[in-house]
Amino acid sequence: MEFEKLKEFINFMNENSLCELEIEEEGKKIRLKKFSENQPVIVSHAAQPVKEEKPAKREGSIEIKSPMVGTFYRAPSPGAKPYVEIGDVIKSGDVVCIIEAMKLMNEIKAEIGGKVTEVLVENGQPVEFGQTLFVLEPA
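Structure (tokenized):
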């Protein structure tokens, strides 16, 4: 995306008092989010074409899905150890991640125990309702 076009989007946000703007164009997706009164910041930018693929369901596996739309965080704070890693055995009620939604930090807890076999979302990445975050192997 050209820098001039990006500046146009920022000006559009300022002129219309928007704090967030998401645009998808020519297979590219950009999301701008304003953290202060006059300073929009690029939150995420997908350079590859946007894909609507779901991971293949694994036989006998358990999926932990996002209960809301927001931003995914693996740890309680930047630089802190992630709540879970691949290979960890978790039990029902264990916190597995945080999803930030509308400036609120929501702890996501496992509803069932198992061994973490996959982490499907990168730290700081936006997630959708029902998106698979983790895959567990039954314990």
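The CA atoms of residues 77 and 98 lie 10 Å apart. The two ends are 47 Å apart (CA to CA).
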